Fold this protein.
Amino acid sequence: MSITVNIRYKGKNGAAKKFAEEMTSGGTVAAIRNEAGNLKYEYFQSLDDPETVLLIDSWENQKAIDIHHGSPMMKTVMELRQKYDLHMTVERYQSDDTMPESDSRFIRK
């Protein structure tokens, strides 16, 4: 069962977007995506609130997250959060690999 963490970064004057751009251009995003157990690490900008950026961060299991939290990339992430004065809300989900027919009929593939 995988674990997905949705982190909403909120700042002022485009800070959240600048944070995501620096994470990407500085190579930190690529390094995190290459970590063992990482399934997804992707930023999205809110259409409703341009000062909010959503990170979808998905891992194979808690052990992979714990190893990531102890990695050098976390120091960079934390320094950039501080640099851009970002505040966060976090939601955590465990995967449910089943798809009931009542839901699947609404999904166009």
